[in-house]
Amino acid sequence: MSTCKKLLTELSSYLDNELDSDLRVEIETHMRRCPDCHIIIDSTRKTVQIYRGCDAYEVPTSLHERIEQAVKMHIEKSTGKC
Amino acid sequence: MAAPDIAPPNPLFKSLDLDLVHRAKEGDVASFSELVSRHERKIFRLTQHITGNREDAEDALQEAFLKAYTKLDQFQEGSQFYTWLVRIAVNESLMKLRKRRNTPFTISLDEPLESDDGLIPREIGQWEDNPESKFAQQELREILDQQLKSMPEAFRTVLVLRDLEQISTEETARLLEISVPAVKSRLLRARLHLREKLNKYFERGKSA
Ligand SMILES: [Zn+2]
To answer: What is the pTM of this model?
Structure first.
């Protein structure tokens, strides 16, 4: 397996700090010599960073009320039975 | 039976989830409403990212909270309420997907999609140094929403759990009923897929 391909296979584990040190050193050494792999690692790291930074979503009032209504209806149904 | 009055929010806001769960279990609906308010925004993001569809995301959100309420007595107070809620919301979202596709979740994702071809990057360009500062949050959200939709759902789901919710690989595997190596493989492919899609927005010197 070429080093570029190996690096690609281990990319996720590398970013998550899950590699043993030998493999890590091998990847970092290769990265310094291979501009493409350097770019792939850098842009994938940034991709994860961007995705993690994504804000929580605003819930419209109508949707929030719908949820509360559904819970209330459930309560009424389950207490109204007896 | 009339719903109990909403308690003054201040002390409730500061309470921990478990206090609220405890009170909700004893029949205090206001405490459950407070739990909804605390978590609905994050859970909505999750259902939106997994279903890739606004209507399904709204329904899944509602059903997740309703299910959480009806199953509250099954919640183990020693565990984390939010994680428990995430599990329910993921299942509700997957059910929406299944219904829409009319196919089981475990579609033929193990074959062509997990071949090495999908791994080979096509777009290779140096990215900006602070890519996230290039767009306003709202714009970024629209970009991500749109690009996630084009991602196979099995990849998307793993990405949401691992990178957004930061749930461990093992827990993700349990939740989705797939193996740990499958989680890792799908996460790698999901990240590479998203990288490829985002390249045009963040490559240095490009204005997209
Ligand atoms: Zn290389």
So the answer is: 0.84
